[in-house]
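Deliverable D2.4 — example input (structure tokens):
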């Protein structure tokens, strides 16, 4: 046979071998044998997953691809076989595994321009001890005397089935005996977790978790065994105490530090296998150099024996100056251990402006200003009101249009009556008119000065009071008590009762024939006038509020003397107070003492300017305060009547 014929035969056999083997020798990137092996026993389901569909290999989210599975020895392509083989994407499911399935399997991922190859090893071994315990076991440790957990190693299978929306269930066995939930302090805590409360030495042994599911119309199961040992020395899951997942505020530009505090319960914790790390924007902070924007301290450790035995670990996160980009993000501290990796975090926000001090100053200033204003108003109330009346008289109604004839009706104890005093008469007939009428321009009706001879008493009192805008009731200590300050109130009440009866009878007679008139000398008439003025004034002031009564106290009244006053006068005095002339006299006496030498030198020429007669003295200011306001605002009666309709 010639050389050409031999070469042709060789190429034919090679091509035939390539066809029979199921795949041609492609120029694929070979990831070789996968490090992680898959272990199974006869009768179980084996799951083989390719790790080529990964962003580390190619961009599988945007590049189209397909996956093909092959047997390594024969090169035969594996396809779906009911009850035996199921290919789903990157996963190969082998049902009812036999010893013949113990081999290597090749997965090839092809894209329009590339291909990738990987080999996966499946080991099939006979089970140990009653076909329950798997020969390949996972070692886990239980801690004596505390609650401990066992974790089923089938989490990859469960995750894959969950992605298919396949319902599955797990059962646990100890030494091939089914574990009933809650029996022997063993609890099914989660789908892949078994909790043993108060571990005791007899809890050691082989624990097998069996996952049962139905896939592709075939029901199968897969199991894993845990070799659980009970350890007298224990170290539990670390607890991140700080940060506590809270919001923290700081000022921009300020330095900042926050600690990560972790507690690891246990009587013997290998701290060399427990680590603490800080993450900022999901980036690990490993620098300890203060010149860096964020840096950490070395981990500090110390032990604790009570109340719970364990180990504390602390690591600081620091920054010399916070910038705008450091706010509104999470800062995470994570503890790494062979059990769990708990985390704690905090969110950093910019601090709000400190308004406490400014608000406190403003509030304090307003409070002080208010107190000062109250004190000033209390001390200078009369002066403030009088100034306001002068400055803004347009706000007050013109009293000339109210139909009244007098600004005030002056009532005082007259001659031959109890309480009469020449000083009182002098004040009523001379001092009061001199200031209020001449200096201030008020119009007064003064009993004893303005009464018309022959006029009826009742008509005179009632008409003149009605024609007045105020009633000035002048009194001294004995006006309502008799000449003796100690006279009883019962005597006064008896006297006023008699006078009132006399007023009623005389009023009726006067209305008939006006026989009760003024003759200028009748003591009874004067006494009756005084009582009538008092009764009328109190009636209008207390009952119908049609007349404002101003009490003018000419001399100091003791509490004992005040107790003998009529109840109506006491009530009015308590309600609105009295304008005290005797206080003004004290001021005058002090003024006389201070100015005696100057008066002697000037010959008394400035006597008329003494404080007792000066309209600017305290007493007369108070009198003007109680007198009617002389406003400028005009109110037309006809318009007021129309508005009231």
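Example output (designed residues):
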């Amino acid at each position: 046979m010639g050389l050409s014929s031999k070469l042709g035969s060789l190429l034919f056999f090679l091509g035939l071998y390539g066809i029979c083997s199921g795949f041609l020798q492609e120029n694929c990137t070979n990831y070789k044998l996968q490090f992680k092996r898959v272990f199974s026993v006869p009768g179980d389901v084996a799951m083989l997953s390719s790790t080529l569909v990964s962003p580390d290999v190619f961009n599988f989210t945007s590049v189209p691809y397909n996956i093909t599975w092959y047997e390594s020895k024969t090169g035969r392509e594996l396809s779906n076989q009911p009850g035996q083989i199921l290919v789903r994407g990157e996963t190969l499911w082998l049902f009812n595994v036999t010893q013949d399935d113990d081999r290597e399997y090749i997965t090839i991922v092809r894209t329009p321009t590339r291909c990738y190859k990987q080999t996966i090893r499946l080991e099939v071994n006979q089970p140990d001890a009653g076909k329950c315990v798997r020969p390949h076991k996972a070692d886990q440790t239980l801690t004596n005397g505390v609650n401990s957990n066992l974790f089923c190693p089938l989490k990859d299978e469960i995750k894959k089935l969950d992605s298919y929306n396949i319902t599955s269930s797990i059962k646990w066995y100890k030494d091939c005996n089914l574990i009933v939930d809650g029996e022997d302090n063993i609890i099914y805590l989660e789908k892949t977790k078994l909790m043993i409360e108060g571990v005791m030495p007899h809890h050691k042994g082989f624990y097998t978790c069996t996952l049962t599911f139905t896939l592709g119309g075939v029901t199968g199961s897969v199991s894993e065994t845990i070799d659980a040992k009970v350890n007298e020395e224990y170290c539990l899951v670390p607890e991140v105490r700080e940060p506590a997942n809270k919001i923290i505020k700081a000022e921009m530009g300020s330095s900042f530090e926050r600690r990560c505090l972790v507690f690891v319960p246990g009587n013997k914790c290998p701290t060399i296998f427990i680590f603490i790390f800080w993450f900022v924007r999901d980036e690990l902070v490993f620098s300890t150099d203060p010149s860096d924007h964020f840096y950490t301290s070395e981990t500090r450790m110390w032990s604790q024996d009570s109340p719970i035995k364990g180990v504390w670990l602390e690591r600081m996160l620091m920054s010399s100056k916070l910038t705008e980009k450091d706010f509104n993000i999470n800062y995470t501290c994570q503890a790494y251990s062979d059990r769990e990796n708990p985390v704690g975090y905090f969110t950093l926000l910019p601090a709000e402006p400190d308004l406490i001090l400014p608000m406190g100053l403003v509030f304090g200033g307003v409070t002080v200003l208010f107190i000062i204003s109250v004190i000033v108003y209390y001390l200078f109330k009369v002066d403030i009101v009088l100034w306001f009346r002068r400055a803004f008289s347009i706000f007050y109604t013109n009293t000339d249009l109210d139909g009244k004839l007098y600004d005030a009706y002056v009532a005082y104890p007259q001659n031959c009556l109890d309480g009469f005093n020449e000083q009182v008469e002098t004040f009523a007939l001379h001092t009061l008119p001199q200031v209020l009428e001449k200096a201030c321009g008020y119009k007064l009706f003064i009993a004893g000065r303005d009464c018309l001879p022959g006029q009826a008493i009742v008509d005179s009192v009632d008409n003149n009071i009605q024609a007045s805008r105020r009633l000035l009731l002048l009194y001294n200590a004995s006006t309502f008590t008799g000449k003796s300050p100690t006279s009883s109130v019962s005597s006064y009440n008896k006297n006023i009762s008699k006078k009132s009866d006399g007023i009623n009878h005389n009023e009726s007679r006067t209305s008939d024939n006006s026989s009760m008139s003024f003759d200028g000398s009748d003591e009874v008439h004067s006494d009756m006038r005084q009582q009538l003025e008092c009764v009328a004034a109190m009636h209008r002031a207390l009952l119908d509020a049609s007349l404002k009564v101003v009490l003018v106290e000419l001399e100091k009244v003791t509490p004992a003397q005040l107790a003998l006053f009529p109840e109506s006068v006491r009530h009015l005095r308590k309600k609105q107070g009295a304008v005290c002339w005797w206080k003004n006299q004290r001021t005058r006496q002090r003024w006389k003492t201070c100015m005696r030498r100057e008066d002697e030198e000037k010959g008394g020429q400035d006597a008329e300017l003494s404080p007792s007669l000066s309209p600017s003295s305290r007493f007369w200011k108070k009198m003007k305060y109680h007198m009617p306001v002389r406003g400028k605002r005009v109110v037309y009666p006809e318009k007021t009547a129309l508005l009231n309709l």
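Confidence is low (pLDDT under 50) at residues 1-22, 483-524, 593-609, 639-645.
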